């Protein structure tokens, strides 16, 4: 008789793992979801239709993948753990719209693989329960890539989701907030308790929804210089902007004069702390530094 239970039903997950003699690897962030209702909510939040292509990172035994496959046009899933290929072949055998690529997603040329796999150009979404140990690198890999991802709906640690979604002036606000919000509008859709995973992690998770801005939130003369500045501003957390800038750019008298001039021109008090600056203020300061950089380089 056909087994119609969803993969995420705890008894079925257990049976799949036992049938394949699969042991979970903590080092790969293998915390599998075993609550079908959460999966339904993720797919609903992501608003996936047969006119959507989806990229998943880390399908595991396919708990989320089967829901994506049921709702999307095509699903491309990157799984680093070779042992899972045979498991996925078994659990996803009913679907002909899923392609599993056995690769570390961070080492992948996303544009190339995507062009190869998707047969039709459709709105593209990333939907994933990300491995905790590399959530930020994976998200940034997608954001900086020239791949046109319209939305990302990712399950990540609650605390990291709060940092990404933070407002200026709060403790959670930092260079990660800025790096993501520069590209995307952010929203925390809902919280997922740690009890719905096998094995249970130490912290709760959140579903973070990111939507690509039509234009980056601010106009920059040099993106690389902007990200260097925002990292610098938060390098030493309780220090002022002035201290932090000198820490990164140096304390030579000419450098200090340059920094002082730029802060003045951008109308930003050196005694402020990085976490009080809005994205617009960081952009203004970065652009001013860029416009005056000859003075710095000549010095
Ligand atoms: N999607 C499944 C679920 O929701 O139950 C599993 C999610 S589990 C949190 C993360 C998955 O990512 C694991 O299957 C793990 O092997 C995979 N993974 C870890 N690092 C990876 C990487 N660098 N590239 C691709 N997959 C990775």
Characterise the protein shown here.
The protein is 41% helix and 16% strand. The chain has 299 residues and is of the alpha/beta class. The chain has two domains: 10-212, Vaccinia Virus protein VP39 (Rossmann fold); 223-296, rRNA adenine dimethylase, C-terminal domain (Helicase, Ruva Protein, domain 3). A seven-stranded mixed beta sheet has the order 4-3-2-5-6-9-7. Strands 1-8 form a two-stranded antiparallel sheet. α6 (135-144) runs parallel beside α8 (175-183), α9 (223-233) crosses α12 and α10 (241-249) packs across α11 (253-265). The longest helix is centred in the last third of the chain and has 13 residues, at 253-265. The chain starts with 9 loop residues before the first helix and ends with a helix. The model has no long low-confidence stretch (mean pLDDT 95).
Q: Give the strand tally.
A: 9
What is the top-level CATH class of the largest domain? Alpha Beta
- Rounded mean pLDDT is 95
What's the architecture of the largest domain, going by CATH? 3-Layer(aba) Sandwich
Biggest sheet: strands, sense, closure?
7 strands, mixed
Name every ligand kind in the structure: S-adenosylmethionine
Shape: elongated
Q: What is the CATH topology assignment of the largest domain?
A: Rossmann fold
As a percent range, the share of strand residues is 15-25%
């Amino acid at each position: 008789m056909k087994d119609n239970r969803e993969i995420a039903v705890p008894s079925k997950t257990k049976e799949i793992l036992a049938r394949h003699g699969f042991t979970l690897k903590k080092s790969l962030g293998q915390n599998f979801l075993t609550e079908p209702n959460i999966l339904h909510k993720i797919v609903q939040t992501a608003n996936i239709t047969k006119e959507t292509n989806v990229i998943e990172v880390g399908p595991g035994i396919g708990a989320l993948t089967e829901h994506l496959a049921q709702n999307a046009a095509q699903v491309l899933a990157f799984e680093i753990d070779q042992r899972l290929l045979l498991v996925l072949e078994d659990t996803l055998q009913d679907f002909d719209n899923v392609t599993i690529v056995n690769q570390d997603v961070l080492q992948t040329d996303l544009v190339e693989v995507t062009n190869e796999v998707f047969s039709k150009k459709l709105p593209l979404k990333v939907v994933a329960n990300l491995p905790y140990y590399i959530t930020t690198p994976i998200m940034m890999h997608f954001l900086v890539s020239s791949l046109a991802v319209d939305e990302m709906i990712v399950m990540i640690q609650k605390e990291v989701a709060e940092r990404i979604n933070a407002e200026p002036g709060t403790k959670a606000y930092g260079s990660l907030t800025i790096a993501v919000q520069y590209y995307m509008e952010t929203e925390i859709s809902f919280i997922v308790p740690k009890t719905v995973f096998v094995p249970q992690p130490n912290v709760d998770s959140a579903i973070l929804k990111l939507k690509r801005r039509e234009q980056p939130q601010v106009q920059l003369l040099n993106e690389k210089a902007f990200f260097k500045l925002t990292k610098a501003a938060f390098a030493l957390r309780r220090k002022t902007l002035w201290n932090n800038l000198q820490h990164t750019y140096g304390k030579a008298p000419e450098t200090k004069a340059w920094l002082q001039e730029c802060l003045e021109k951008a109308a930003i008090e050196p005694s402020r702390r990085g976490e009080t600056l809005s994205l617009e203020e960081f952009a203004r300061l970065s652009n001013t530094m860029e416009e005056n950089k000859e003075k710095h380089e000549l010095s």
